Structures are given as structure tokens and as C-alpha cells.
Amino acid sequence: MIQIITHSTFLPEETNYWQQLIAEGADSILVRKPGWPEADYELLLQDADPSCYHKLMIAGHPALCEKYGLQGVHFSETGRGLVNGDQIIGYRQRGWRLSTSIHAAQTLQIASDNWDQLLLAPVFDSISKPGHTSTFGTGFRLSKDGYKGQVLALGGIDHTTAAKARDMQFDGIALLGAIWQEPAAAISNFRRIRDIWRTDALMS
Asked: Which runs of consecutive H residues, i.e. helices, occur in 34-154?
């Protein structure tokens, strides 16, 4: 599983990158723009080719997920606390993929299987947030403790750490800084990481 998290701010021609990344094998793109109102998210979705929608998850806007037939919804730690059980049941009945963020492996012990995906960060020192350093040692191995969903490694994932994330027993990786730090190189960087991750997965 390889998920791309969008650049946090406006990026020219961004939706064209989405389409190329999906064509190159990205399993999912999380549309996340902290601080953006729903109307701006919608304008961005309208700029995207509708063929991408089934691969897009959106951060915190269920109405847009339903309106555009997106893959699912991601909730931050704060947002997760504002969603009640009935809402989650309703979302799951719609067939949405539900995702949330965690920042400590111990949180897995209370993770509900209502969540299809957990983003655990920062596994390595962040590329997009200098100073946001990992608290996971090189010998860390993920124990899902009965959790049935997928746990994706986020934070510092690039061509030098993708194989390490696999060795740590993660189900997938989420890419942010390695893709958007140099947008002109986004596709070539993705290919490099994809090939390392998927070759390693076949060998494991």
C-alpha cells in the first residue's frame, strides 16, 4: 500500500500530478490541506479528472466524499474525537475507507477495527517538517495487537527508508515530503520509492 499525502498548501497544476501518480501505481491520495475551508477543497476536486476520484481520500469532509464518490475520509486525532459511533457506522455502510492518525504505537491497543487505516508518524525524521523527529528506534517492529486494518508508516519515508519501513512490519507507506519537496521530480521520486517498496514486498 502506497499512499500520497498532498502538499499542505496551494500547488500549481497539482491535480495533474495526482493523475500521473495514480497512473504510476499510487494506491491512494489523501487530499489534506490544513486550514482550508470546504469550499476550497471542492474547487480543488472540481479541477481533478473524475477518473481520479475513486483513488482520493479527503481529510475531514464527509459531505465531499459522498458528493464526489471518493475512496474515503481521513480524520486527524482531534477530528476522530468529534465523530460518534453512529456516524462511523453510516460511513462504513457507504463503503468508505476510514483513516485516522496516531503518534504512538501504544495507541494501536485501543484502535477500533472501524478504522481501515492508521497513519503512524513520525516513523523517521520528517522531510516536510524540519525538527519533527522520530521517537522510534532502528530496532522497532510493529505489533498490531489484533488490529485488523492497515498501518502505514508516515514521516521521513523516501528511497532510503522505504525498505526499513517494510522491515519494521508496516503494511504500507505514506509519502509527503519526498514527493512534494521538489514537485518537478515528484514522479521520478515516486517511481524510485515505489520500486524499492514493491521489490522488497515481493522478497519478504
From this structure: 38-47, 62-68, 77-80, 85-93
